[in-house]
């Protein structure tokens, strides 16, 4: 169907607005941001943009979940992260004026908003507070990347897997946190582990009562214990 104003959610009534750039900007910026967005609904497996393409827009995951990954020539995937509602996607490549470094693909039915490059740049020049908010989001992305590299280099397998599980739950965590539609292969890639090690550790976590498998979903029964294992405050 393509991007349109019709699909763009109303930010004022969005359940995820506190996790979004929208919550970090002032009222005039918010009004303009609402008006300039267009959006599209993606089915599971549909690609939002491909690695190597020249950026033309910045995206926001409004509902659903988007995975960011690299592909090898043989078709293998290296998963970097999942973007949840409120997260920006593709903004670093656009701001740097570099081709997209990764692929972005909908994991489940997702609504993704888009703002074109020139419109986005004019918006940042007009609204300094929005530009500062974008810098904050970029800084968070850099910190996430550094933390992942540190974990893979220094933390044991158990702590890395616990950290991956915990990071999939928004803050503050809900009363009964559940991770949906996450494959063991994805967990392994994000934790820097083999699938065999990931399966063994998941079974151990389940035996100890930290998690509970519910079909394809994972309920984090003892969230605080997992967070402690991960070494997170």
Structural class call reads alpha+beta
Tally the helices: 8
Q: How do the strands of the widest beta sheet line up side by side?
A: 1-8-3-6
What proportion strand?
Answer: 15-25%
Gap between N and C termini: 44 Å
In this structure, how is the largest beta sheet organized?
4 strands, antiparallel
DSSP helix fraction: 25-40%
Q: What's the gist of this structure?
A:
The chain is of the alpha+beta class. The chain is built from eight helices and eleven strands.
Describe the structure.
The radius of gyration is 18 Å and the shape is globular. A 4-stranded antiparallel sheet has the order 1-8-3-6. Strands 2-7-4-5 form a 4-stranded antiparallel sheet. The protein has a 3-stranded antiparallel sheet with strand order 9-11-10. It has helices spanning 27-36, 91-96, 117-126, 128-154, 157-167, 184-191, 195-207, 223-230; strands at 38-42, 47-49, 57-63, 66-71, 77-83, 88-89, 103-106, 110-116, 178-179, 211-214, 217-220. Helix 3 (117-126) crosses helix 4 (128-154). It is an alpha+beta fold and 233 residues long. The protein has 8 helices and 11 strands.
Which short descriptors sum up this protein?
233 residues, alpha+beta, four-stranded antiparallel beta sheet, 8 helices, 11 strands, 40% helix, globular
Secondary-structure map:
Blueprint: H1 27-36, E1 38-42, E2 47-49, E3 57-63, E4 66-71, E5 77-83, E6 88-89, H2 91-96, E7 103-106, E8 110-116, H3 117-126, H4 128-154, H5 157-167, E9 178-179, H6 184-191, H7 195-207, E10 211-214, E11 217-220, H8 223-230
Antiparallel strand pairs: 1-8, 2-7, 3-6, 3-8, 4-5, 4-7, 9-11, 10-11
Helix pairs in contact: 3-4, 5-6, 5-8, 6-7
